[in-house]
Structures are given as structure tokens and as C-alpha cells.
Amino acid sequence: xxxxxLLLLPGDGIxxxxxxxxxxxxxxxxxxGLASFExxxxxxxxxxxxxxxxxxxxxxxxxxxxADAVMFGAVGGPKWADVPYEARPEAGLLRxxxxxxxxxxxxxxxxxxxLADASSLKRELVEGLDIMIVRELTGGVYFGxxxxxxxxxxxxxxxVDTQVYTTHEIERIARVAxxxxxxxxxxLHSSEKHNVMKSGVLWKQVVTSVHKAEYPELKLEHILAxxxxxxxxxxxxQFDVIVCDNLxxxxxxxxxxxxTGSLGMLPSASLGAADARTGKRKAxxxxxxxxxxxIAGKGLANPIATLxxxxxxxxYSFGLSEAADRLDAAIADVxxxxxxxxxxxxxxxxxxxxxxxxxxxxxxx
Amino acid sequence: xxxxxLLLLPGDGIxxxxxxxxxxxxxxxxxxGLASFExxxxxxxxxxxxxxxxxxxxxxxxxxxxADAVMFGAVGGPKWADVPYEARPEAGLLRxxxxxxxxxxxxxxxxxxxLADASSLKRELVEGLDIMIVRELTGGVYFGxxxxxxxxxxxxxxxVDTQVYTTHEIERIARVAxxxxxxxxxxLHSSEKHNVMKSGVLWKQVVTSVHKAEYPELKLEHILAxxxxxxxxxxxxQFDVIVCDNLxxxxxxxxxxxxTGSLGMLPSASLGAADARTGKRKAxxxxxxxxxxxIAGKGLANPIATLxxxxxxxxYSFGLSEAADRLDAAIADVxxxxxxxxxxxxxxxxxxxxxxxxxxxxxxx
Lengths: 365, 365
Ligand SMILES: CC(C)[C@H](C(=O)O)[C@@H](O)C(=O)O
Ligand SMILES: CC(C)[C@H](C(=O)O)[C@@H](O)C(=O)O
Known about the structure:
homodimer; 2 domains; 12 helices
């Protein structure tokens, strides 16, 4: 079995605690011969700033470029509220996304049957929910220039951000979304604001062309982003795959995640283009939740989102779909047995610690 | 009683039907001596395009400028899917907002007790919900330049939208929001993405300064827009007033509206700055819902959102708070009696028509 190189970037807050469980899982997989991972580890976010004065070092970036995949924890916290904008913890994450070319962010919002009651929504609306949000991740208002604050003659300030999309950027993310819809229920919703934004006009045009030319057998629906947010709350099960730009994806995936009632459960994958020669894609995997400074260091965090993100790595980066299936089944088993971390425990129910949950999942494999 | 000038712009689809009920209500108020309105009427949106080739005529704009307030219905529909971008139905709405200087959009999300079960959310999460979203309405990515699609040398297209905010624009919307928080629960959430957008950085700074200098007695919380969307679904009652930019306001107010389970119930007010000499503000009132082409012309639309918007006009533009209170009470009474249009009827319950509902509200006054 060829050795695979994995870079672990735990980051800040609970990122450190949940990544510890991934490390244990890797040790288990290596030991049992199911995989052969070689791991490196580095700093990102606030902890990188404390060490190097920037949110990710050049050395860590180089390691990320060379790894077969990156596991990312979470970054940020009140401790770094006043660091310069360019060095804020999130800058490390944004640089990784951009420099590795990870344009396709896959965010499943799945409601685990055992947790349907944890949702704010009525059970019948979320039971069996299985949505995939495909978010463009290296363009749009996150990276467009100019992006600046200037002081005007009258002393006032003027802030500018620029939303930019090209045909090519929209085409490639549309293809990722259609490819996923193809192996799922065959339905893609494309979400933008073409009634207000020129980028929305181009988005709609390009997605429509890709549909006609390459995926005519699938069903494509266009939905305005505000209406999409609304419909996600009203009748979420009408959706299969949703594709949208970076900023709408940020908003819509958080709303979708919350529907499942278990933010601590949701993984994500960020993928680059396939290399023309080797066919390999750069990739980074991270939980949808953040660094949760309020509960950091207390062993309260739910490691499942990060373990499930690692499961996506097994599947998308390493072709180890058997191990990925076993991991997913182990997570379902452990939940089925009633094990709960605090975030998903019913009121009054006893909650287990981060490492108890991680240990139980590994044991169930 | 001085005569007040009101311009009615029913627009397209169900806009026409719900505005008919406002006309009846005005006739009732005039007849009973509770008010003295003089109304004019004009086209906007697709119907204006059909008549004049643009989404609002210069003549209608002039009438809007001269009126004491504008009542707006809704615009758009599949019929106008292919009109040029500059003439699309929404352009009429955007021009009204911009040219009248209506920078403050107030969108209450209130859960009527009689309708708490219509929400997708569990009853206990929305019962008693009363949020006010204050959305900046004349700036941001809606109006910033450049806003264009250009064809590049390689034949690809490139679309650009520009998000711009100045200190002044943020200060004035922050004051509107703090003033509202002051007469409500004293809590303001300011929502942006300062971790990604420079306009978010400036937004946070300016709102913080206005808070310190002018409203130190109120509580201010900053919340990232994605997290705000999530928290609205998780525990909506944590919010009192939320202030945000044009695009986040568009998304967040739709999510908030849906929590109440009764989109057909929600009004909005769009206000300009007070005139330095007369103290008067330009203002436009409209339901949060759209033109709903699928049910247009069938008498199925719920007129309450538009009637309640007219109630906001009575309060904010005409100082007729007594009549506004009577209208609000009449709406609550009619709902309490169990009257329901289709959108808010329980499964299997008989629904009444648009004009039956409008008539019942007027009768209850
Ligand atoms: C941390 C932040 C920069 C990031 C984003 O806005 O993309 C986060 O909200 C996410 O969704 O991954
Ligand atoms: C119709 C459309 C232009 C408008 C907007 O995006 O502002 C609508 O969604 C709204 O929220 O009033």
C-alpha cells in the first residue's frame, strides 16, 4: 500500500481537541493495515500568529502544497480580535483555499435519524434530510480586487469589496455540482441574485449553458438566493444539490447546517481541479463548525464533524471508500447506541467527552 | 384634517389584488373621518414595462417624489423573464428606493400567536417572536459601480458587482436601528462579515463608534452574518433588533420572515432621511412577499401583509397611530376568530378569499 501524506492543521480552540481524535483514528487505520498514512502537523490561525506573526507560515503553506490532503480544524477566537486584518486567524484559512486552488466546497447537510429531534424544525420536515451544498470557494467577493478602506477628503471612510466571476469559474463549479446531482437524485438548484447582481446574471447564463450542453438529462432549477434561504427553512427536503457562489454559499450552508440540529456533526470537503498529468486533486477537509472558544479546552466538543471530514478524505482523496463506509457506519452505530456529546444531547441527558466519543467511534469500526 | 397624498403602485401579480384591499381600507378611513387621503395610482414593474418599455415611467417617479408616502405591491413574473436587464420589473423597485433615498428598510418578523403552528420551527421557539430587521437599502452591492459584464479577449465573460459603504451611510442606518432598539428591548445585533469583507470591517467600526458616542446605555452585539442566519434558525428569540447591509438584510430578513410561518403576513417600511426644513421623511411601504405569479388572479393572496404595511404608513408617515393600533387589533381579531387565507390555513381548513379577508379586517375596525 502506497504511503499517503496528510498534513494536520488543528488550528485554535476546539480545533485542537477534535483533531486529536483524527490522530487516534489514523493510528488505528495504520496499525490495522487499512491504510498507510504519514502525517505532518503545523500551526494555522491564531496559534500560527502567536508563533510567527502571521496566520500561516510559508513553511506550512509549502507542506500543504506537498501533502496528498490537508485536515483542517478551526481558527479564531477573542484573543486575536485586534490583530491586523492581514494576520487575522481567518487569513490562514483563506490563503489555503486560494493558494491550493480549492474552488469546490462540498457541504452535506444530513439529518441523522437518531438526531432528528435536535433540530429546531419539526421532525417531519428534517427526517431523512440529505442536501449537498456546492459552494464556489476561491472567487467572488472573498477575493475580488479592489478590497480596501480609503479615507476620503472629508475625513469619511469608504470601504470597497468586489464580487468577480468569470465564465470559467462558474463552469467548473457547475460541473462539480451536476456530477454530484447525477449520482444523487438528479436535481440541481442554482442560487444567485440575477435580479440585482450582474454576477448573478452571468452565473445563471453559464449554469444554464453547461446544463444544456453537458447534463440535459438532469433537472436544473434556478432560485434566488433570498428565496433559497427561505425555502431551506420552509421545506428543506425539496432540495438535493444546491450550487452557489462563495458568499451565498457561506450563508446558505450555515442555514442548511442548522436544520439538521447538529452543527457538531457536519463535515466538508474543499477540492481543487484534477491535475492534467496525475489526475490528482488538491484537497482540504474540515468540520463546518468553528473554533468555539467558549467551550475550548473542556473536552466538550463533538469530534464527529472532523472524523466525518476525515471520512470524506478517505473517499475523495485516497480512494479508500471501504474504510470510509466503515467509519460512517461506526458513527451511525455510536449515535444509535445513544452516545451524545453535549451539543447533541437531549435536555437532561448525560453527555460524553470529546475523547470518549472519538474512542467509541474507533471501537465501533 | 390636512389631506395626505398617497401614491399606490400595485405592480404585478398578486400586487394588484392585495392593493385593492388597501383601496377599500382607505375609502373606509376617509368616509369614517379617521383620515383624509387623496390617492393617485400608477404602474410599476412588468405592467409598466408593457405600457412604457421601462419598469417605471418618469411621470410615476415624479408622483412618487411628490407623494407623502408610496404604497408598493409587488413586481415581476415569468412573463418578463427576457426583458433587458435595465428594464426588468425589479428595476422599478430599485429606482424608487434609490431615487427617493429610502435607506432604512424596517422588516418586522412577528409571530402572531394564532399562527405559531404554521411555522416550520417548533412552537416554543417562535411563540411570541418579535424581531425587527433594519436593512440598509440604498447602498452596498445593489448599487455600487462598476456593475457590469465584460467580454474578455479569450471570449470568456467577466461579471463584476461592487460592494461600497461609507462612514455616513453606516452611521445613519445604525442610528435608525439604535433608536428602534431604545423603544424595544434595548438590544441591537449588528451583522456583517468583517472576517472576510472590508465593508464588514468598516461597518463594525462605525456601529461601535455610534454605540459608544450616542447609545452607551443600549446593548450592542456583533454577529457574523453566516452565524446570524444560523442563530435565527436555532434560537430566534435571542434577537430584538438586527442591523445589516443591503445584501445580508435581503437574506436574513427572508429567513426571519419564514420563521413566523406566515410570509403573507409581513409588512415593511422603507424610510428616507428627515427633511431638514419640514422634518418629513420620504417613505414607501410594501409587503415582504413577492408577486407570486403562480397564484395571481385567483383571489388566493393574503392581503394582511399589505394592510399591515399600510398600518406602518399610518404610524410612520401620517402620525395616525390610533388608526394604526385599530388596524393591528382588527388583524389580530380576525385571525383570532380563525379566518385564514390559503397560505396560513391549517391542512384541511377552509380558506377565505383575498377580498373576504380584507373585508373582515375592515369590518373588525
Ligand atoms: C471563517 C470564515 C472565513 C469562513 C468563511 O466565511 O468562508 C467560514 O465562515 C466558513 O464558512 O468556512
Ligand atoms: C425584488 C428584489 C429586487 C428585492 C431585493 O433583492 O431587495 C426583494 O428580494 C426584497 O427583499 O425586497
